[in-house]
Known about the structure:
This protein is an alpha+beta fold and 237 residues long. Helix 2 packs antiparallel against helix 3. It has a 5-stranded antiparallel β-sheet. It is 25% helix and 27% strand. The chain contains 6 helices and 13 strands. The relative contact order is 0.15.
Amino acid sequence: MKSYRRFQILLIVVLSLTLPGGSGIGHAQQDWEKIPYQRWGKDEVKAVLEASPWSRLDERGTALAPMMFGKDTIKVSENLLVLLRSALPVRQALLRERQLESKYDTMSATDRAAFDAKNKALLECPACAKHYVISIKCPHLSCYTGTFIEDHKKFFYLVNDKGERRAMAGATPLPGKEGSAVFFFPRANDKGEPLLTPDSKEMTFHFMIQSNVGLREVSEKFKFDVTKMVRGVEVVF
């Protein structure tokens, strides 16, 4: 009887760690995960958007780029910020960032309601139900101008650790960020199977950019550790 009781207790502990809402075995909670996103400050937002499993800030420093007119050059940032935007923590961080910039916490109830209505789509993300959504933010000069994405669409795709791919289904400019863009990739293949499962190890995002320097075409690929995206029994992305 005692051994059966110990088994019951162990089973409860395991389920609490693995069911949705639990921490997940082997997952150590970050500071931002311990409080509701509505209470995040700038530090928590930055941690999610720049140093979480769903973000990649590629710091490349600065470079010299030609001016639009004339022979002079200017210093521009070459940094790239890639976000796995369909992950709920990323969308919460983006929303909270907007809230902090707009001083949401001190707004009147009426102003808050208007703000919530305006930003509802960001948090709910209707496209996320059927797509993995990724954004690329390029500072200063444009990474994506004209028909660049359409002309190079075959170079935008996702690959899991088994070599399975998802080609880009579409792309759209990132609101308010000139030259940056959001990309959409189907979650399921023809058999209805997702690209990523809790057993997946990594995902590689292949893409192209126009370099700030001379608008050169550059092929890039960033790897993401899928094991760090698992919460409970699902991949959060």
